[in-house]
Amino acid sequence: MTQPVGFGLLVPTLAEFEPFGLAEFRAAAALGDRGDLDVLWVGDHLMYSAPILDATVSVAVLGALTTRVKVGTNVLQLPLRRPIDVAKSFASISHLTEDRVILGIGVGGGFEPEWAAAGVSLRERGARCDEAIDALHWYWAGERRDGRFAHSPGVAIDPPPVGGRVPIWVGGRADAAVRRAARCDGSLNMWVSPERCKLIRDQITELREGNVADFTFGLELLAHIDDDHDQARRTTRDSLARLNLDADALEKYTAFGPPHEVAERVGAYLDAGVQHVSFYLPTRGWLRQATRLVDEVIPLVRAARPALATTEV
After folding, report:
1. Residues facing residue 280 across a β-bridge
2. pLDDT per residue over 88-147, tens digit each?
3. Is 119 buried (19+), middle (13-18) or exposed (0-12) by CB count in 10 A?
4. How far is 87 from 3, CA to CA, in rounded Å?
5. CB 173 within 8 A of CB 192
6. SS3 for 35?
7. How many CB atoms lie within 10 A of CB 111?
8. Beta-strand (E) ranges in 142-227?
9. Side-chain-facing half-sphere of 181: CA atoms under 13 Å
10. Closest by alpha carbon to 91, among 47, 155, 45?
11. Which of 125, 172, 197, 258 has its CA 20 to 30 A from that of 204?
């Protein structure tokens, strides 16, 4: 059976490396619509140590600027928000984009001040996330339900999302995140090896009792393209350090170098069963990197694996 494969691109709404405004949104949208991309993703924080645009607003803007490519959150910190608000916003985006939105969610928790500002306890984030996934479906379907953190009065959101629901993908590599993903439509793992991806795929397949035909195994991969391998490595390590991440520990989970080396690295994940690779390009000159990715790297990946079909995510 042919293994479908798709590609995504994280649009840098976090201005850690350079400002990103409406002109850059238009450029990203144009690249998404013309290129071999399936999804344009955005990250999420309510507050952060660097400027960051609101995720839901950014997805809506990208949806309005595009006609083909899907848009989504990678990932929305779901426990920080009331499920009714998320359900309404993403139903509207689904309606307006004609089913071109994916709700990527996770427990979050990396920046404590935003949790204090939102009045949400970090200790409850797992329980809140689990219930919120159910609550989204309560609101979309109009089910009357009472949960610990949410209440659904039995009135469906209208207009509803196309098809009655928005696809939900779950970020995270911990066992709890994997179990959460198995309840939904896809996974988005980061800082994992190909071997770990295969284990996650096996675990989700077991949890879903083999029913994974409508599930997408995804990966978020930090990458940097440079014809000089050593310079690409230095830039990657510098980017990790600037993001306050441990370059020594995480470099092995990235892809860097000339286009053929990045493509080979991506191929190792595809061989492990990954079906969607979303690229994170944290550096100055994002549009140049993104263009090289679409024009040089992705064609090499596909040329090396002609049996892989494009997927509709």
Report:
1. 222
2. 999 999 999 999 999 999 999 889 999 999 999 999 999 999 999 999 999 999 999 999
3. exposed
4. 32
5. yes
6. coil
7. 15
8. 144-146, 151-153, 168-171, 186-190, 216-225
9. 31
10. 155
11. 125
* Beta bridge partners of residue 132, listed in sequence order: none
Q: Give the strand pairing for 144-146 and 151-153.
A: antiparallel
Q: What are phi and psi of 173, to 5 degrees?
A: -115, -5
CA 245 to each of CA 43, 237, 285: distance values in angstroms, whole numbers, following the listed order: 17, 9, 21
CB proximity list for 174: less than 8 A, separation 6 or greater: none
Mean pLDDT of 54-67: 98
Alpha-carbon gap, residue 172 to 244, rounded angstroms: 19
Cα separation, 14 vs 137, whole angstroms: 29
Is 278 within 8 Å of 74 (Cβ atoms)?
Answer: yes
Q: What is the spatial distance between Cα 133 and Cα 189, in angstroms, rounded to a whole number?
A: 18
What is 4-310's CATH topology?
TIM Barrel (3.20.20)
CA dist 92 and 159 (Å) reads: 7
DSSP label at residue 108: -
What six digits make up the tokens of 175? 């066992």
Other Cβ atoms within 10 Å of 172 Cβ, number: 21
Closest residue by Cα to residue 59 from 94, 24, 34, 27: 94
Q: Which residues contact 215 (CB under 8 A, 6 or more apart)?
A: 185, 186, 187, 204, 208
Position of tokens 């993104």? 290
- What stretches of 243-281 show up as alpha helix (H) in DSSP? 247-250, 259-271
Confidence of residue 4 (pLDDT cuts 50, 70, 90): confident
Show me where the domains of the chain are located: 4-310
Whether the per-residue pLDDT at 195 is higher than 70: the answer is yes
The one-letter amino acid code at 253 reads: Y
Candidates 237, 283, 287, 289; CA nearest to 18 is 283
Cβ neighbors of 73 (< 8 A, separation 6 or more) are 41, 42, 43, 44, 55, 56, 59, 102, 103, 104, 105
Residue 53 in tokens: 């645009």
Query: Tokens representing 302?
Result: 């596909």
